[in-house]
Amino acid sequence: MSNKILTANRLSDGLVVYLKGSNIWTTSLRDAAVARDDATEAKFLETGSAAVSANHVVDPYLVDVADNGEGFHPIRFREAIRAKGPTVETRHASGSPR
Q1: In terms of Cα–Cα distance, which of 14, 66, 80, 26 is closest to 6?
Q2: Contact by Cβ (8 Å): 56, 67
Q3: In the chain, what are the domain boundaries?
Q4: How much is the pTM?
Q5: Could you tell me which of 28, 29, 22 has the C-alpha nearest to residue 46?
Q6: Is 18 left (phi over 0), alpha (psi -120 to 50) or beta?
Q7: Is 95 left (phi over 0), alpha (psi -120 to 50) or beta?
Q8: What DSSP letter does each residue of 74-93 carry, written as one string?
Q9: Quick check: helix, strand or coil at residue 2?
Q10: How far is C-alpha 44 from the chain's CA centre?
Q11: Potential cystine with 57: which of 8, 39, 78, 86 (Cβ 3.0-4.6 Å)?
Q12: What is the C-alpha separation between 76 and 79, in angstroms, rounded?
């Protein structure tokens, strides 16, 4: 069984978020809770589904992660990019860079 975290995008600003605990989301992958068994994975997905119903996040899904000795990191390249943030400059409505 591999280690997994739950990720989604926050509806209020579109940022990538990770499930930290029961109904708590964080933008830091380092703070994400890690599922190590099927029961915890199912619980994570239930929490994600409830957060979708409450209009907090969109598209929650599980991501395989590995421990590199300094913490967990995504195995897939796509998820590593998502964890590092936008790859293009973003602007607020006022036009100033983030």
Answers
A1: 26
A2: no
A3: 3-84
A4: 0.83
A5: 22
A6: beta
A7: left
A8: ESSHHHHHHHH--SS--B-T
A9: coil
A10: 11
A11: 8
A12: 6
